[in-house]
């Protein structure tokens, strides 16, 4: 795999996504966020609609703007209380300054219109950012990210691209006029789009961005390809050069029938793709951390809904995707040498990490829907550890039989409103079970052999002797 001292940076923990800002006032949303902060290590959270009318941010009264940040403060105060920070997506347009307030998206009616008066927009941004600095301090707010809008190329902006780039220009200018230490970026595009156009504006001096942000889902392109995330991210990296590259949305895909995000498919996708894009991005933000999510209204169905992209289901139940991030969170800070012959395993792979106390091997067996995949019998060899095979090794799995509450829910008859006893059983089914795994130690190599079913993952942990 790699040199024993190659860093293994937990870049995927930088940020996680959510629905819209108003949800941040709900106790269940807050509880879920604290769980993923404490157990998965996420540092930032991003959501839509911080300027939405449902937060009462701006009203025009007698021709004058009246700003109110109480609801926003309540949300950001909570983030601060649990040691998290926001990626501040500057959206959507308040009704009283929108050119066309009938242009909306989602159940919560986020307005996608340009402003009818551009100075009204810059006045709002200046007031908002200045308020944040007054409340939290410039040093703190300078660690946040201000992302201008959301997906202007995918139905979230009813104006022209020229108008969007003007919005980006004047927003960057007003924020940097407050302090050049503040971080501003965009285009927050879908499908890794508008990158060339954004870089052209940067290169001709129209605006100065501190980062490039965009989104990517494996279903953005057809036919489906198992390596599409690495291919697209690598291409975007070559365009933006050394600029910080933030993927502020991704997940295992916007599959509709059947949705796969509740299944072990998502955990196998996570393992493979987080290894694939390592070193290419500064941020890779999973969409979303919770099924407390109202783009189409709050759905009561526990699993198997097309909008259930959360790591946590309703009733606080961790999905296989949550468990995958939990296993990743427990990996070390360095990659270590090892071998997994790729020609032998067309759909499987593995890598190893270490810290002072543990060696961890991650393995996955992943393929896109509709392509051949079977159980793989893996042989994984790790070198560089002059120890005996008497040290204990354990294995934890996520697959159809392990860490899979969705499977139990189906066996229950897919209850729409599960009882307390059913919720307790589903929580139990989500737990990772640890078992011992033997290995051989020959000529300085630890050798493991184990099977991985389709869309399965495994984490093997070897306790190292104290140095």
From TrEMBL:
Domain of life: Eukaryota
Listed GO MF terms: hydrolase activity, hydrolyzing O-glycosyl compounds
Keywords on record: Glycosidase, Hydrolase
Keyword Electron transport tagged: no
Active site annotation, chain numbering: 151 (proton donor)
Domain Glycosyl hydrolases family 39 N-terminal catalytic: residue ranges: 7-431
Record-level GO BP terms: carbohydrate metabolic process
Membrane-crossing residue ranges in chain numbering: none
Similarity section: Belongs to the glycosyl hydrolase 39 family.
The protein's name in its UniProt record: Glycosyl hydrolases family 39 N-terminal catalytic domain-containing protein
Source organism (scientific name): Arcella intermedia
């Amino acid at each position: 795999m790699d040199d024993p001292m190659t860093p293994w940076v937990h870049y995927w923990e930088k940020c996680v996504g959510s629905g819209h800002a108003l949800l941040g006032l709900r106790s269940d949303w807050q509880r879920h966020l604290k769980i993923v902060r404490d157990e998965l290590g996420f540092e930032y959270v991003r959501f839509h609609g911080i300027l939405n009318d449902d937060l009462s941010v701006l009203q025009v009264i007698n021709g004058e703007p009246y700003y109110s940040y109480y609801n926003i403060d309540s949300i950001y105060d909570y983030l601060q209380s649990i040691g998290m920070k926001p990626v501040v997506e500057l959206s959507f347009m308040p009704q009283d300054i929108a050119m066309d307030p009938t242009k909306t998206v989602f159940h919560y009616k986020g307005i996608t219109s340009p402003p009818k008066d551009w100075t009204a927009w810059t006045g709002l941004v200046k007031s908002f950012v200045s308020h944040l600095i007054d409340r939290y301090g410039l040093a703190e707010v300078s660690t946040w990210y201000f992302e201008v809008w959301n997906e202007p190329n995918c139905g979230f902006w009813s104006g022209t691209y020229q108008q969007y780039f003007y919005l980006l220009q004047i927003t960057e200018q007003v924020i940097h006029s407050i302090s050049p230490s503040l971080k501003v970026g965009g285009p927050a595009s879908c499908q890794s789009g508008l990158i060339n156009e954004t870089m052209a504006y940067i290169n001709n001096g129209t605006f100065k961005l501190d980062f490039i942000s965009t989104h990517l889902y494996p279903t953005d392109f057809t036919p489906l390809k198992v390596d599409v995330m690495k291919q697209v991210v690598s291409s975007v990296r070559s365009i933006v050069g050394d600029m910080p590259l933030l993927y502020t949305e991704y997940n295992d895909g916007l599959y509709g029938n059947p949705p796969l995000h509740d299944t072990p498919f998502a955990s196998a996708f996570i393992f493979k793709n987080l290894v694939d894009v390592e070193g290419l991005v500064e941020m890779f933000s999973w969409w979303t951390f919770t099924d407390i999510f109202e783009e189409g209204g709050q759905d009561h169905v526990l699993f198997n809904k097309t909008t259930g992209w959360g790591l946590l289901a309703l009733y606080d139940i961790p999905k296989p995707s949550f468990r995958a991030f939990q296993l990743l969170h427990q990996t070390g800070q360095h990659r270590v040498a090892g071998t997994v012959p790729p020609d032998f395993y067309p759909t499987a792979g593995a890598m190893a990490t270490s810290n002072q106390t543990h060696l961890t091997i991650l393995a996955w067996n992943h393929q896109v829907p509709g392509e051949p995949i079977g159980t793989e019998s893996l042989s994984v060899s790790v070198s560089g550890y002059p120890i005996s095979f008497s040290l204990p090794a354990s294995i934890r799995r996520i697959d159809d039989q392990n860490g899979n509450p969705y499977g139990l829910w189906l066996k229950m008859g897919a209850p729409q409103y599960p009882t307390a006893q059913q919720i307790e059983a589903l929580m139990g089914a989500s737990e990772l079970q640890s078992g011992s795994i033997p290995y051989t130690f020959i000529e300085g190599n630890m050798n493991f052999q184990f099977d991985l079913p389709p869309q399965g993952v495994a984490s093997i942990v070897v306790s190292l002797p104290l140095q």
